[in-house]
Amino acid sequence: MNKPTLVLLAAGMGSRYGGLKQIDPIDEQGHKIIDFSIYDALRAGFGKVVFIIKKSIEKDFRECIGDAVAGKTEVEYVFQEQDAIPSWVNIPDGRVKPWGTAHAILCCKDVVKEPFAVINSDDYYGVSAYKTLVDFLKDPVAKEEGCMPFCMVGYQLKNTLTEHGSVARGCCRMDEDGYLSHIEELTKIEKTASGARYTTDDGASWNDIDINTLVSMNMWGLQPEVFPELERSMDRFFKEEMEKNPLKSECFIPIEVGRMVNEKKASVKVLSSADKWFGVTYKEDKPFVMESIQKLKEQGVYPEKLWV
């Protein structure tokens, strides 16, 4: 089979971070988190990189990231724009947010024809996660015949929280065979002195959550057969969900994958990584990320310059 493709979600506006965090350097050499992700993926065996971005940042993105990577592997650009939707959908007045990660992935349908992984551009997943993904995508195994064989890399919630605000996480449960049985997208989880808590009503009420809960960090291994399902997902979203919150509602890939699992259209093998996740949800997270990357360089995990 062809080598799998790495798809990077980089069209988010970075509103909580306060800027275009996808191209914000995290070391003295000017590397971004996305550089380390691509470097790890290529040495693990991925063969192509697809960037999902907004058209408005294409020039800056190419100059800061894409051009360097293009010298090492095949690169494609996909644009997630608000008008990349069915003709019968009317965009609500005042809507500026993208339509969500499910929509972003669907935008890749014309350039991704092989098994692929999806990651966030502003998250560091660790070296071993990519090797684990490649191994599965080269020899995918479904739980039941007729299911699309997907996978995800899960992390413990306690290793994915920030000291500086709330985060969104897909909280997972597995069956006895290690396949995903349930996933719930919680969009506002925050760290507390005794653990963690979440709210589903903008802070009117809070519930405790176990910090050892397995969560999705949007590191998925998918098959190209997912695209027709995502088209149906977006149709349902526009017909049933958007009107509930016209300016902010989004169609999230964890929710849609969970639906496919419930309908027995897909199974998701839950993989684990021995590495620690970290990311820059907020500007205050950046010093920790920079320190962590420098330690990895000192340990020999990365060279001083990635793209030489």
Secondary-structure map with pairings?
Blueprint: E1 5-9, H1 33-44, E2 48-53, H2 58-70, E3 74-79, H3 101-106, E4 116-120, E5 123-124, H4 127-138, E6 148-156, E7 167-174, E8 180-191, E9 196-198, E10 207-208, E11 214-222, H5 226-241, H6 253-262, E12 266-272, E13 278-279, H7 286-298
Parallel strand pairs: 1-2, 1-4, 2-3, 6-12
Antiparallel strand pairs: 4-11, 5-13, 6-11, 7-8, 7-11, 8-9, 9-10
Structural notes for this entry:
By secondary structure, this protein is of the alpha/beta class. The chain has one domain: Spore Coat Polysaccharide Biosynthesis Protein SpsA, Chain A (Alpha-Beta Complex). Helix content is 27%, strand content 25%. It is built from seven helices and 13 strands. The protein has helices spanning 33-44, 58-70, 101-106, 127-138, 226-241, 253-262, 286-298; strands spanning 5-9, 48-53, 74-79, 116-120, 123-124, 148-156, 167-174, 180-191, 196-198, 207-208, 214-222, 266-272, 278-279. Helix 1 (33-44) crosses helix 4. The longest helix is centred in the C-terminal third of the chain and has 16 residues, at 226-241. It is globular. The model has no long low-confidence stretch (mean pLDDT 90).
